[in-house]
Specification:
The structure is a single chain. With about 375 residues, the protein is α+β, with helices and mostly antiparallel strands. It folds into 4 domains: about 35 residues, no CATH class; about 120 residues, Immunoglobulin-like, CATH 2.60.40; about 100 residues, Immunoglobulins (Immunoglobulin-like, Sandwich), CATH 2.60.40.10; about 55 residues, Orthogonal Bundle (Type 1 dockerin domain).
Length: about 375
Amino acid sequence: MKQLISFVQEYSTLSIHFVVVGCFFLLFPNTIYAIPPTYIATTTVSTSICGNNVVDGGESCDVSGETGGYSTTIVGRQCDVDCDFGPYCGDGVLQTIYAEECDDGNNDDGDFCSGTCTIEPAGSGGGGTSGGGSQSSGGDSVDLGDTQINIVGQTIPRAKVNIILDAESIGSVTADADGDFDFATDASPGTVSMGFWTEDDNDVRSITYSTTFDVTQGAITNLSGVLIPPTIAVSDATINPGDIVTFAGQAVPDAKIELHIGDSVQVLTTTSDSGGYWNIDLDTSGLPAAEYTARARFVIGSSVLTTESSFSSTLQLFLGVDGSPTTPSDLNRDGFVNLIDFSILIFWWGTGGGDSDPPADINGNGRVSIEDFSILLFNWTG
């Protein structure tokens, strides 16, 4: 009974409320009533799909079918598989692998670096006049300042990189845990030769990576893609047919390592670990008794666009024959690096090295030049 009375009381109170509210609407029909705002939480998600031909956030480009190959112009630059632009003349990065002599970030002529990334004579730019008997030579009297070279490269993780400029040591830098390093130096304008070498954790010295290029006064020359070749050592250079010999060394981390036996008649591969260490076992049971050479290089990049380092030092392997290893700079194999080896180098100068054995092309870049001379001088014994 009490519950029924309570229900009737609550129902009566509620009815009175509805009657009051209804009368208010009838008396004031044009009144605008504020409705409390409703707040809705929203989340914006941005997606980027490389390969959909739409330049999404974080992408520089997006063109299906392009692989990022080198372009001689800014207009013709290609998009790579990661939706970034590939290398091109005008990107402000000196890339000697594509025969660039300079790169000032544009494709303009008359600014000491031509539209095709070749050096222009100092008197070819700067607003010289052609009439009125002017004696101006095109801006030769302008002080263009010093030249700076910025270097970016890769090597063994945490290795000390020794840097040579025109056959003189100019300093060193330590690579980070990923093997990346950078270095900056002032230089005189003109043609310069630079060399880079390192040692691995077992004190095995790499071959010197060398490059020659032109720099322009008053400009910053960016030299990228300096890849110091792997170090290489062999467990035993004099073995019997059928023996297993181990080659080992260090390189950039997580890279494909290629070991080339002889004139690449046999190529073995492995992958360096996070510390850059690598090793390959060679089973000689299928090789005839002879003297062989062995050298290594690393390959980085995707399956579509890869970059190869230069070859390492060349090791000699005596399989079932007599012999003793010599340095690659000892071109006549007499145990010394002296004027005789220098004469052999000069004989093959400017060529691919012919049939010289060991190769007069000491650094294996396909041409006997100043780089090989620098390596020979470094190993000079007299």
